[in-house]
């Protein structure tokens, strides 16, 4: 059997100390130099071990202060289901309320943004065609738990009351309900989840370690005519959230 990489061994040692209450939640760990000297490894090995434990929610790094044992934090349940589209209210807020948390979000919309190649392909439009782009930061009790960047073809909603997803009388109503307001029936969505490491920007927004594990979901909504009407990149930190898919069952 191949020998375990040194940083995994150190991560196991640190995790064991926490399990045995040598270090309690909120305690500051010794410096990397001290830990490295104790275990006979270099500071880079200790850094990799700590980064792994931070990505798993066991430790947390505080800029300019050091590394601490993380307070116990229950993972937020994020439910993915077409059945959760509601005429009023937000499925995200409903999910947060179900676990005793306050759900909210912040957003920023930019109109007439040229579509990058990948987004254009997902929307079935030419690269550079104009889109409405909205960035979202979803919050649970004021703490970020999910990011999303949404793209809609500008020519689809231009001149209508729903051109701005978070503006006008249909603000915050969601893609399905907003499209219905202009006579477009959304029939289904396709999601493609995959694990990857967080970018530096994502880590900063989510308050997680750079390169921590996240689930990246590429979602596209389609009209009953088969046209893509919106596509989004959703980023969920693995250590803080669990993703649950509800699958409606049709009965004849």
From TrEMBL:
Superkingdom of the source species: Bacteria
Record-linked Gene3D superfamilies: Chorismate lyase-like, Winged helix-like DNA-binding domain superfamily/Winged helix DNA-binding domain
CDD domains: WHTH_GntR
InterPro entries (UniProt xref): Bact_HTH_transcr_reg, Chorismate_lyase_/UTRA_dom_sf, Tscrpt_reg_HTH_GntR, UTRA, WH-like_DNA-bd_sf, WH_DNA-bd_sf
Domain HTH gntR-type per the UniProt entry, residue ranges: 4-72
Entry-linked Pfam families: GntR (PF00392), UTRA (PF07702)
Keyword Metal-binding: no
Entry keywords, A to Z: DNA-binding, Transcription, Transcription regulation
PANTHER family from the UniProt entry: GNTR-FAMILY TRANSCRIPTIONAL REGULATOR (PTHR44846:SF17), MANNOSYL-D-GLYCERATE TRANSPORT/METABOLISM SYSTEM REPRESSOR MNGR-RELATED (PTHR44846)
Name listed for the protein in its UniProt record: GntR family transcriptional regulator
Organism per entry: Streptomyces salinarius
Lineage per the UniProt record: Bacteria, Bacillati, Actinomycetota, Actinomycetes, Kitasatosporales
């Amino acid at each position: 059997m191949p020998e375990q990489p040194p940083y995994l061994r150190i991560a196991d040692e640190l995790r064991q100390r926490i399990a045995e209450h040598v270090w309690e939640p909120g305690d500051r760990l010794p410096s990397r130099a001290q830990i490295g000297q104790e275990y006979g490894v270099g500071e880079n090995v200790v850094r990799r071990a700590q980064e792994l434990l931070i990505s798993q929610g066991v430790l947390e790094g505080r800029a300019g202060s050091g590394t601490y044992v993380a307070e116990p934090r229950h993972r937020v349940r994020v439910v993915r289901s077409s059945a959760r589209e509601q005429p009023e209210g937000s499925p995200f807020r409903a999910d947060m309320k179900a676990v005793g948390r306050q759900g909210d979000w912040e957003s920023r919309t930019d109109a007439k943004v040229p579509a990058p190649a990948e987004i254009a392909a997902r929307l079935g439009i030419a690269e550079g065609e104009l889109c409405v782009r909205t960035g979202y930061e979803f919050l649970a009790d004021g703490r970020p738990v999910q990011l999303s960047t949404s793209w809609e073809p500008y020519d689809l909603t231009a001149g209508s009351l729903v051109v701005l997803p978070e503006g006008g009388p249909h603000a915050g109503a969601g893609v399905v309900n907003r499209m219905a307001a202009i006579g477009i029936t959304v029939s289904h969505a396709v999601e493609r989840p995959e694990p990857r490491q967080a970018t530096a920007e994502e880590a900063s927004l989510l308050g997680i370690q750079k390169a921590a594990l996240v689930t990246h979901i590429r979602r596209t909504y389609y009209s009953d005519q088969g046209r893509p009407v919106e596509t989004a990149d959703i980023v969920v930190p693995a250590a803080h959230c669990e993703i649950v898919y509800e699958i409606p069952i049709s009965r004849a």
